[in-house]
Amino acid sequence: MSFVLTEDQEMLRDTAINFTRDELPVKHLRGLRDSGKNGVDPEGRQKLAELGFFGVLIPEEYDGVGMGMVALGQVMEAQGRTLASTPLLQTACIGASAILLGGSEAQKQEWLPKIASGEVTTALALDEGSHHNPAGVATEAERDGQGYTLNGAKKYVQDGHHADVFIVVARTFGEAGDKHGLTLFLVPRDANGVSVQTLNTVDSHGAAHLTLEDVHVPESHVLGAPDKGMDILEPVLDRGRIALAAEMLGSSRAAFEMTHEYLQTRKQFGQLIGSFQALQHRAAKMFTDLELTTSCVSAALSAVDEQRNDIAELASLAKAMAGETVHLVSNDTVQLHGGIGMTDEHEAGFYMKRARVQEALLGSASFHRDRFAQINGY
Amino acid sequence: MPYDAPSDLETFRQEVRDWLEENCPQSMRTPQPEDEVVWGGRREKFKNPDSKVWLERMAERGWTAPHWPKEYGGGGLDREQVKVLNQEMSRINARIPLHSFGLWMFGPALLEFGNEEQKKRFIPDIIHGRTRWCQGYSEPGAGSDLAGLQTKCEDKGDHYLINGQKVWTSYADQADWIFCLVRTDNTVKHEGISFILFDMASEGVETRPIKLISGSSPFCETFFNDVKVPKDQLVGEVNGGWKIAKRLLQFERSSISASGFGSARGSGMLELEEYAKIHVGTDSDGKLLDGDLRGRIADHQMYTKAFGLTVRRSQEQAKAGQEVGHTASIIKYAAAKMNQDKHELMIEALGTEGLGWEGEGFDKGAKMVTRGWLRSKGNSIEGGTSEINLNVVAKRVLGLRDHQ
């Protein structure tokens, strides 16, 4: 397990932090919101592609840069710092991983170069209720002559309002609740029978509900072995959870820095408010949680690159810790800023709104505590 | 016999393994009961005779203080070699040969601030467990505000004369010598403190054990009444003791953190989740029946895991030459919280089984949990209260200022 970055990873980190700071600051998200773009940002996507961020996990033979999860984590943390609305989590992490882990050689050749270049973005269409529940899929995939016919509905698909291809999880066997019997399908956005309901979400990133009505999917678009989708889905979700935890760490750090700065400039009673012990202790506790979360995220990222056997446990640890931390820090950011923190003009609210979405995506802290307990045998 | 460690790590590992195989007595590879812990010093009884053999053999190689310089009897090993030694010891479940405030706190500070004569005189006896040291820091009027201490030290020409009282002196009634903070100047606060060493058998020293809520008496009140101390036993400069005191506190806090306030292993106590399974019960999937308690246990164990990863991260970053003061500063605070939460949850998981004090009718391990729960309340007080630790983080790490 490594907690120290290599020189290449360090360079990528600097590039990513400078890029999001200069090109995708919170002000940029505010602009997208105020102009009704709902988090959709084709120019931003183009710049991410030019920097090679879509191909961080993709090996060089498929036109990526093959730098691994620790490297991707640095990019995710950087985007978390400025709350940037990008397709990286869904495409560079989840989409690329699903094809890398589950795809045939032909599928890898077809899709990975397109993902690496930024030509194609993907979105995982998994959950059907309002809570993360991978085994709860009821969407049906029925065999027809040349493939499958899909029927069902997916809720709150991240990036669903703009992704080019959906990775749909559907049931080819058994009932909702069974881990066995799931299959992954690549479904282009423009396939017949796919309807997308765009959602305006609290974090201004947007999302979509999907309805699948007699959507035909050819055999060539089945990802991995039928019925055994969970074998791919679990490791893919864990990578997504870890990458999202890195993003959340970035958001937490940035919100904390903003608050820390405010404590050292705002005066009341003729004193800097940061000289009041009640606030000093809150800041010190937040700092403690940030340090603990940093360790969990680093450990989880490097566990993926080292192909360790405790990735699932570390993914749940990182996602739960990051969830608790981003929740605490974003709420305290509003509170410690006082009245100004309640205004739309200030950025504190953006962090709190995005935090709630990050907390819910790919399993809440409570989901991951339950999973952690199960993994540890109680 | 002096031992030169080979520079090649794998060769070293093999040599350590062979040596341990030959020299670590079989009974020293079993879990250590509380009453077989060796603290050394004049009063050490070595309840298990093997523990004397084991200590002597380890001390001869300097491996009770593996990273201390060889010239004073230490092992002279580098960080990687120490790691190998620790790994090989835990591979065979070897007991720690010597518990000692000398090794954990006083020795490192003396190596940094003592003069040559003092190091030669005191360090070898620490390594061999011949002298047991205690720490004279807190006073009735100087706890969190340690620098407010008043124990008086007067220069009488050919000796110093000490009068005053210390409190919370760990194992003062068992110790041979004390390292002690004393006031050598009344007109200033921090700059009037000196760091001095003396024999607890000196005339005028009296100790009285303090009984804690847990029933044990690990601490004493310690009284000094006209205690004469030779002048060569003052460490560093007169009035220059505060710097040494603070450095020593860092060693204390990191040694508290490294041991994480102890673990259940080997003491007859079970782990938290095992107690919960036994006393709360599980469903057919093996899940704890009390869902709320289960969630809180998971929360605590995640915190514990995060803590362990943070200690490792801090070590790795230090090894890579990175600044780790920021990370280290949170460790004592987090360790105290973690140990207290663990004991609270254990008591809760045990139910009425966790409410025994002594005698029959209660499991031995459970009674230790009860005592441990009470003792853990001190974790956020001793070695710097949690509130003081948060102050340190706020001021030194986050740079937040006092009222102007």
TrEMBL record, chain A:
Keyword match Flavoprotein: yes
Residue span, Acyl-CoA oxidase/dehydrogenase middle domain: 133-215
Chain ranges of the Acyl-CoA dehydrogenase/oxidase N-terminal domain: 6-119
Keyword Transferase: no
Record-linked SUPFAM superfamilies: Acyl-CoA dehydrogenase C-terminal domain-like (SSF47203), Acyl-CoA dehydrogenase NM domain-like (SSF56645)
Cofactor dependency: FAD
Keyword vocabulary terms for this entry: FAD, Flavoprotein, Oxidoreductase
Positions of the Acyl-CoA dehydrogenase/oxidase C-terminal domain: 227-373
Gene3D superfamilies xrefs: Acyl-CoA dehydrogenase/oxidase, N-terminal domain, Butyryl-CoA Dehydrogenase, subunit A, domain 2, Butyryl-CoA Dehydrogenase, subunit A, domain 3
Family: Belongs to the acyl-CoA dehydrogenase family.
Protein name, per record: Acyl-CoA dehydrogenase
From TrEMBL, chain B:
Entry-linked SUPFAM superfamilies: Acyl-CoA dehydrogenase C-terminal domain-like, Acyl-CoA dehydrogenase NM domain-like
Domain Acyl-CoA dehydrogenase/oxidase C-terminal: 239-398
Cofactor(s) for this UniProt protein: FAD
Keywords: FAD, Flavoprotein, Oxidoreductase
Domain Acyl-CoA oxidase/dehydrogenase middle: 134-227
Family from the record: Belongs to the acyl-CoA dehydrogenase family.
Name of this chain's protein: Acyl-CoA dehydrogenase
Organism of derivation: Henriciella pelagia
